[in-house]
Predict the structure.
Amino acid sequence: MKTLSAYIENSVIGGYFDEEFKESTVLLFDEFKKGNYKSVISDHVISELDDGAPQYIVDNLNTLIYEKVEVTDEMRNLADLYVEKGIITPKFYGDALHIAIATVIGVDVLISWNFRHIVNLNKIKQFNLVNLNENYRELEIRTPKEMINYE
């Protein structure tokens, strides 16, 4: 069976240290370390971490083996379209860019704890409508809790 690729954005990396999200996030990191999922990040994730994340959060990312992708104009254009369609406001462009990156690279799932702009059923439907109209496939978006193998 193919190992699923999972794009993780910053809320997951920081969630490792948040009491509300810690348990599921630690279990998700264990899934990555066991090889049950392939972790993917972007230089956008690194840039957001460099913009003021505590060093222990940056160090936490380095406990994973991950593939890093570079942000392209194609990704920026798709993120711009999400903003243009009113799915996300320009203030939260970074969240739109995470969605666009995961869509363009074609990961199996984007994992996030961001319920306001990312793991939000109404927004997921809107993102995917744009994605389909732009000839991309639908993007699965889940929380770490939904990615745990409970067997």
The first helix runs from residue 10 to 15. The chain has a mean pLDDT of 95. The CA atoms of residues 11 and 95 lie 10 Å apart.
